[in-house]
Amino acid sequence: MAEENQQSDYVTLVSNDGFEFKVQRSAACIAGAIKKMLDPSNNFVEARENRCHFESINGIVLEKVCEYLYYAEKHKDAKDVPDMDLPPELCLELLMAADFLNC
Amino acid sequence: MSEQDEALFPGSTDEQMPSSPPSLPSRPPMDPPVLSRKRTRASDLSSNHPSSDPAFFSSDDASNDNVENYQDGKRRKKQFRGAWWDRAMYSGASQSASADASIGPVPSRDGGKTQFTRNFDSGVWMGSDSTDASTELASSQERGGATAPSMNFASLNHQPQYSNMPAAPTSSVDKRGEAEREAARIVDKALEMQAQRVDLSGLNLTEVSDSTISPLHSMVRYAQHLDDQSDSPREYFTFLPTIQLFLSSNRLRRLPNELFNLDNITVLSLRNNKLTEIPSCIRNLRNLVELNVSGNKLRHLPYELLSIPDGDTRLSRLTILPNPFAQIIPTADAAKLPIIDIHQFIGIEAIKEDSTMSTANWPLRGQTSRLAGWVTILGEQMRGRWKWSKRSYHQSMDGDSNEHLLRLSPKEDYMIRRQLLKARPMLIASSPVAYLNLFGSPNQLGARAPSAMTDEELQGFFDDPSTSPAQDGPKAHSLVELALKECSASDSLSQLHTLLPEDSPRHVVDALDNAQQVKQTGGKRCSVCGRSYVIPRTEWIEYWHYVPGEMKCSFSELFVPFLRKGCSWKCVPDGNPRTWF
């Protein structure tokens, strides 16, 4: 069962207010904390269920985080990377979330 | 008939009455005297009844209301031409007070004097202005007169900046020491005299605040040559000043941020201070021609110093020695090495003979072998440049054959030699790259970034790059970086950390403070890709041969460490990894 789940391309990120985001595993693993959560060798419940629940991140911020994860994956090896635009009102919450997620 | 008439003309009996005069005299007293002057007063006064109380109605001056003035039948009023306050002064305020009460506002007895002096000057009197306002103003002048101007004077004296300090200027005055106030006075005087040389050296300054430096922004070059011939090109010279700022022989540990916004500085002397770092924002001083940082506590120079542009305004005189630069050989070994003359030793003599620069007969053994390798690299580069400049020189002369290459006149030789020595710095070697985490600290616990390493640690780092293994990460900026940049764009950056939750980690708060400082100094740019960033992710040291101001120097001083930073883990030195010696 665990083997099968590990193969899945998508993982689910859940915010503290119940929003669920299905994100490609490769993108999600750009965030160091998510990568560790999903690493089967760490034997976290998240790795078994392919589902990460974030108690400290709300839906609006998590949506931006997911957007960033895809942005970072897209520009992994690009030469000139345009900076992603973040909404100013979210910058502090995103800073805290980025610190938590290590990305 | 009579009855009919009476019926038809019921008011006919009353018609006898209207011509009676007594009803008329009752009117004039009701009217304001000025308005009634022409119509009613004339008829009234022409009648022979001057005995009514004239002073009550008339606007006569008090000095004229004698009995004699009323004796002849037709009395002319004495009219006064001019403003009422002049008349009041003329007649004497106290006597006419009751008469004037019906005319208009009367100066009160105590405030009268100041009021008159003021009104003489004003020339215009608005009808709506009340007496109260003028006396109030006069009295406030009297009251405030003693204190207000002296306050202005004091603030000018002690705080000469044209303040863009936000609040509480008095506290900032107190914060600045006596030495800095002296510095501020000198800056002020320089501005006043339009002197572009600002000498703040030897003032024992421990700190220079932004407010002391910022007045220099308003400096304008004095138009000296405007009286020359009208067509001379001098007439069109720039008004931009060329500021020469001397901060030498003080005790500065850090430089004010504002200094790096003064892009009109051409000469900056920071000699003999206690600086440990030259900020990377030195690149903002794009017009810098001469920079002296000797006699400080610098371990390395910012890479951005190399990027101050070439051209007419290139940084042509850079004095960096002595400084305790990061050494790549132990100091005990370095002490054994002789002082060398660059010209003779690595330079032209060896190159001309086209001999391979052999380090065999140089006193470089054992620990100093790395240095020997670097000297070899330097020699190769020098030789390459020598050939190139000789060839380009001949091509520019006549495009002739190689025969000339071997025979150079002394003058030609000198010219090429100068060109060679004035050439841009040469990269000799670069250290391994240290990869930093999201908040700019080394990845390994206990590790130090190259900029903070001691000589021994740096030598070890050169020998064993595996202490900071290569990392792979996206070229895109981290979310931390993006969020910090967004915070920097906010106007209220300085207050943002108060919005963070109480239990937020220390490094997040520090990162916000860092972002604020980066913003104040005009931002950082990645030395590899040129993007602006807040937190460096890679850091390494490059040793360059920076053609020094003086020709004689020690071996180890041939190579100057420059600190380079990148904004992502992909921002590392390009090309093949260099072999470390």
From TrEMBL, chain A:
* Major subcellular location class: nucleus
What residue intervals traverse the membrane? none
Do you know which InterPro entries this protein is assigned to?
ELC1, SKP1-like, SKP1/BTB/POZ_sf, Skp1_comp_POZ
Where's the SKP1 component POZ domain? Answer: 10-72
- Where are the coiled-coil regions? none
Q: Which SMART domains match?
A: Skp1 (SM00512)
Reading the lineage from the top rank, the first entry is Eukaryota
- This protein's record includes keyword tRNA-binding: no
Alphabetically sorted, this entry's keywords are: Nucleus
GO BP: any one term = ubiquitin-dependent protein catabolic process
Q: Name one GO cellular component term.
A: nucleus
Do you know which Pfam families this protein is assigned to?
Skp1_POZ
Keyword Cytoplasm included in the entry's annotation: no
Q: Where in the cell is it found?
A: Nucleus
Q: What does this protein do?
A: Essential component of the SCF (SKP1-CUL1-F-box protein) E3 ubiquitin ligase complexes, which mediate the ubiquitination and subsequent proteasomal degradation of target proteins. Controls sulfur metabolite repression, probably by mediating the inactivation or degradation of the metR transcription factor.
Q: Which family does it belong to?
A: Belongs to the SKP1 family.
Name the record gives this protein: Elongin-C
Organism field: Rhizodiscina lignyota
UniProtKB/TrEMBL annotation, chain B:
Query: Does the entry feature the keyword ATP-binding, yes or no?
Result: no
Q: Which GO terms describe its cellular component?
A: cytoplasm
Low complexity composition-biased segments: 50-66
| Top-level taxon in the UniProt lineage | Eukaryota
Q: Where is this region: Disordered?
A: 1-78, 94-152
Q: Compositionally biased, Polar residues: which spans? A: 128-142
Name assigned to this protein: Uncharacterized protein
